[in-house]
What we know:
- The protein is α/β, with parallel strands linked by helices.
- It contains 5 helices and 5 strands; from the N terminus they run E-H-E-H-E-H-E-H-E-H.
- It has a 5-stranded parallel sheet, with helices on both faces.
- The chain starts with a strand and ends in an 8-residue tail after the last helix.
- The model has no long low-confidence stretch (mean pLDDT 89).
Amino acid sequence: MAGVLLVTGAGRGIGAAIARLGAARGWRVAVNYGRSRDAAEALVAGIQAAGGEAAAFAADVGDSAAVTAMFAQVDRVLGPVTALINNAGVIGPVSRVDGLDDPQALAALYAVNVFGMFHCSREAIRRMSRRQGGPGGVIVNISSVAARHGGLRSRRC
């Protein structure tokens, strides 16, 4: 086996495709999801039916304690993460910057899209870093085209 691959936001879409490909290439796959439990469990069942090894792990990546707990659970179920794909992301309200006045919306956006990447990378590095006795590994950060144009239906300023 290639090692343990954790894909955040893997319940559907690009994350699910990455998880399937990783399993097909011999990785034990940790499927992280925030809200799409049924989709994550269906993905895991599909990977297992194809002969792969996978398990689903619920965690809000914007919550540092939840991420720490998720990595500990992945350690117990699949082994220490040796590859991380930071794929989880949310789209905030479609708005021009000068029209975005909701601090809660901004906090939620940054919690997942920015801090979530740091929380997950921190935990992966604690397991992978050769400085800390790990085997080495890889972290890939994915961004959506929404990062360039502000959302699915945004208008130019």
